[in-house]
Amino acid sequence: MKRIILALALSMILACGAVLSYYHLHVKPFWVRSLTYEESSEILITQGSSSQKIIAQLADAGLISDPLSFRIMATLAQHVQSYKAGEYRFEAGMTPQQISEQLVAGDVIKRTLTFPEGWMNAQIIKELREEPLLHGEVHTPPEEGMLLPETYHYVRAMPRQEIVDSMKAAMRTAMDSAWQKRDASVALESPREMLILASIVEKETGVAGERAKIAAVFHNRLRLKMKLQSDPTANYGLYRRTGALKTRMMRADVEDVSEYNTYIIEGLPPSPICNPGKASIEAVAHPDVSDALYFVADGKGGHVFANTLAEHNRNVAAYRRAMRATKE
Fold first, then answer.
1. Which are the contacts of 239, defined by CB distance < 8 A and separation ≥ 6?
2. Which of 280, 17, 35 is nearest to 174 (CA)?
3. Can you say whether residue 185 is alpha, beta or left, with left for phi > 0 and alpha for psi between -120 and 50 degrees?
4. What are the residues facing 295 on neighbouring strands?
5. Distance (Å, rounded) from C-alpha 85 to C-alpha 106?
6. What are the tens digits of pLDDT across the range 136-162?
7. Which one, of 100, 132, 127, lies nearest residue 116 by Cα?
8. 153 lies in a domain?
9. Are the CB atoms for 234 and 306 separated by under 8 Å?
10. Residues 33-64: pLDDT tens digits?
């Protein structure tokens, strides 16, 4: 009798093992089985959405086939109270469990906005306002020059002011670092003066290798109490009065009286004239060792530098001849 019972028990164990093995190989729980949708799907979970609404969205998007079973799985895993709002991209073939875990992690779609070096605040705020996936207004626009031009990440419905605040914080960090590590020869009184000069360098050249050379010219002029005589500062003064920048500066423009026109005022203007990038800030913090006091365009996108006015005048004459030749 005992042998019969033992044999039956052994048979039941083997049968159960076979069933469990088959189940494991062929009948996995639905939440660890990949679904058959072949394309990624994007959905927006709004702030304050209930778990019931979120699960209904997943079902409507074809991401889950059995909302009730999904809820049971998510409840047992203690997920349902931890879903986060945002815009999600669920890749093709994800399992319900993976979808639930992504909602808990808040792994939302991240987008980028890139602001070019040298943009003014008005241009940056306009770009933010025209981005339809952002939310709200810029309530506290900063002073000109206080936003660091870089690439910033954002998520759908992020407040525009939040990006502005991030740009301000990034500029403070960049300025503090540059000021602490500046060369001993830098003839400036404060990080603010460094920012103002960096904004002028930013507008004077788009050639990376020239920034430190142009910074050296302006440092030399400041030490010698010479006027900076920078066209972009005069242009910015015109912009503040008219709302438009000149594409080509004329003699009358550089004679225009404003507190920003460094052909007229001595030293630096009262504030930055644009938002400089890190490269221009670093150029001002670490200018070239040079005696140059002048520079003029070379007609090829760069500049020619000179130590004396006589040399500079020759460079200007050569530039004008080259410009006339291109028009003939």
1. 120, 245
2. 280
3. alpha
4. 305
5. 7
6. 999 887 899 999 999 999 998 899 999
7. 127
8. yes
9. no
10. 455 456 788 999 988 899 999 999 999 988 98
